[in-house]
Amino acid sequence: MPRKKVFEGSVDYLQILDENGGVDKSLEPRLTNEELDRIYRLMVTVRQYDRKCMSVQRQGRLFTYLPVEGQEATQVGTAYVLGKQDLAFTMYRSHGVFLARGVPLKYMFLMSMGTFQGGQRPEDIEDVHLEFTIGSQLSQCVGAAWAAKILKKDGVAVAYIGDGGTSEGEFHESLNLAGVSKAPAIFICENNLYAISVPRKIQTASQTIAQKALAYGIAGIQVDGNDLLAVYAAMKEAVERARKGEGATLIECLTYRFGPHSTSDDPSKYRTKQEEEEWRKKDPVPRLQKYMQSRGVWNEEYEQQVLAEAKGEVDKAFEEAEASVHAEPEDIFKNVFAEMPETLKEQMEYLKKVEEEKKNLRQA
């Protein structure tokens, strides 16, 4: 018998707003001026938060930080589509998602300070706390989405992962289960081209990450992740599909982090200045400015006002967060068990004894 083709597939690439602010009117999503204003303010605020964190971390007032500058459109554009009934499963770089989902700036600073308070979300925010274990949020997302389907709830579950995270087994297991169960799950891959220092081209031989969706029987699309309109449109379509029971979607957002992977990283070791400069031309913030200007929403006076308000909110939140931190060494034993085991009590008492001995030595 001759060979025959049993599968053939492709994935679309979506760009609506080009680098110069030109828009494809046939694809332009319906966003009001008020919605554009809200989205833009979120993007500017998270960028100011990001720069504040980088600055105070260098002063020793914050622990290791993972910056997001350059990826604001991907995060805000997707999170903005979600409703209160939906759940977001985030990672360590999801600052734009946190802000768009209503997490107060003070809590965001407390998270970055590594405090217990930073893990306490306001009661009206049900999103799962960020994951540092790469890939874990994906399986949690599928479980929550499948549960929503079984319980006939209207909510969708969304997980965020970097391009490096797609090399984890949990990425493939989660997409497979989402496909089999037709769970209302959405996977956002923020492809910033590097898994710390490892370029995407030596992580996978696939031409795109989006095409991996085809193997698991779910929808997949690649978008210009620095194009707010494309990100918003792709996410809106994915959410609508999920709510109608049409299953999961993988959205690959092509973007770029302008800063290091973290404050302990030196990107000059693995990427060139020329590459960084080329991506700066694709900055999502000025690109959105140009579009808003064409609609009569943005001008220089508006920009100065938004920037001043964002800086003021960020500075105030940091001051409040820093003033509220009063950590003691024994706090590491607390807030883990409802009732502390005897072994931990013994260790805590031993630590107190050592601290007291040190104090006495210093005073001697």
Task: Write out key terms for the chains shown.
364 residues; Rossmann fold; alpha/beta
Short note summarizing the structure:
By secondary structure, this protein is an alpha/beta fold. It has helices at 33-58, 72-79, 95-100, 105-112, 136-150, 169-181, 212-215, 228-243, 273-280, 284-294, 300-324, 342-363; strands at residues 12-14, 87-91, 128-131, 157-162, 185-191, 194-195, 198-199, 219-224, 249-254. It folds into 2 domains: 12-324, 3-Layer(aba) Sandwich (Rossmann fold); 329-363.
Describe the protein's architecture and organization.
The chain is of the alpha/beta class and 364 residues long. The protein has 2 domains: 12-324, Rossmann fold, CATH 3.40.50; 329-363. Helices cover 45% and strands 11% of the residues. The protein has helices at 33-58, 72-79, 95-100, 105-112, 136-150, 169-181, 212-215, 228-243, 273-280, 284-294, 300-324, 342-363; strands spanning 12-14, 87-91, 128-131, 157-162, 185-191, 194-195, 198-199, 219-224, 249-254. The longest helix has 26 residues, at 33-58. The mean pLDDT is 93.
Order of helices and strands: EHHEHHEHEHEEEHEHEHHHH
Class from helix and strand fractions: alpha/beta
Strand ordering within the main sheet = 1-8-9-5-4-2-3
CATH architecture grouping of the largest domain: 3-Layer(aba) Sandwich
Uncertain spans, ≥5 residues at pLDDT below 50? none
Per DSSP E runs of 2 or more residues, the count of β-strands stands at 9
Portion of residues in beta strands equals 5-15%
User: Rg, please?
Assistant: 22 Å
Number of domains: 2
CATH class of the largest domain: Alpha Beta
